[in-house]
């Protein structure tokens, strides 16, 4: 296939990764960003072996490891009894896999610095509203109807609120999920916490509190932790009206060791309310647009796959374009490459979420007594580790990737 003119909507991690893969394959790319300056949104996230493999393929493993924090297990306990009800260890699988918790700013800067070094153009302050097909090219319009550009292919990486996918013939049905979370990024230097784990406390399934040590936002910065508390998004305003002090007292009652984190929160503005939705564009392309990341699919964050899936999408799309004879074949190949993996992890997220975010006491009782016991019996530890790693089904081959040699990655991280 000849080199293409490609417009990429959105300069978040998915869009930046796509720009790097596609430009290195010889295509002419430009990024279009709605904000005046590209910037990260959100607190911390957990890079899984899937996303880390994508970054390694881009040559960015040393940079992200220099900022991130290695995570070896996910551990959760009942806040009242102290009983362990979640214990997933990456080393249950052979090969030395692990997670890497990162501040979103660290992931963004790692990718953005690589895009800047490659001198790839980014046009900012442009809100894309619609696309139309003209003589086999895709024309983008802004929110006042002006033409932004026309391309052989548009890659929509503008997220769950994408107007391009909403206006397309594959616009997904959106199911807003009732549970979200308050997030904050806080200092963790000198505070007692498990630096190698995502640690959580539960009250049945109605309360989930977590601490994720995410490393540094930038080189030389202080180490940070992402602190979160799940709740029904419909209850967020009521919680705020009851006052910050009452909210903090409630958390401290559940988990006294979090007080040094809570003491850093002086205002609701330090907390971000994250909302989640389940949606899938089928297929993830239409009328000269390929949808990647949250514009193509989103679900509950319970398994921590969001950013990792977006990076896999970017790699799979570039691989499809490199191995197909026509653009139409490439888009069909991209959809086929990602279909099974995306559907599997959306299903798993849907199944697992009620065990940790719901009003059901019976489900929580089952989790605490049956699931926690079964999870210790082989092959359950291996299966759970594969689910968390994002590798229960092979995500690499169809994306043209070869999984990291984790021993080498660990030495780089050390």
UniProtKB/TrEMBL annotation:
<dbReference type="GO" id="GO:0071949">
    <property type="term" value="F:FAD binding"/>
</dbReference>
<keyword id="KW-0285">Flavoprotein</keyword>
<dbReference type="Pfam" id="PF01494">
    <property type="entry name" value="FAD_binding_3"/>
</dbReference>
<dbReference type="InterPro" id="IPR036188">
    <property type="entry name" value="FAD/NAD-bd_sf"/>
</dbReference>
<feature type="domain" description="FAD-binding">
    <location>
        <begin position="5"/>
        <end position="342"/>
    </location>
</feature>
<dbReference type="InterPro" id="IPR050493">
    <property type="entry name" value="FAD-dep_Monooxygenase_BioMet"/>
</dbReference>
<dbReference type="GO" id="GO:0004497">
    <property type="term" value="F:monooxygenase activity"/>
</dbReference>
<keyword id="KW-0560">Oxidoreductase</keyword>
<keyword id="KW-0503">Monooxygenase</keyword>
<dbReference type="InterPro" id="IPR002938">
    <property type="entry name" value="FAD-bd"/>
</dbReference>
<keyword id="KW-0274">FAD</keyword>
<protein>
    <submittedName>
        <fullName>NAD(P)-binding protein</fullName>
    </submittedName>
</protein>
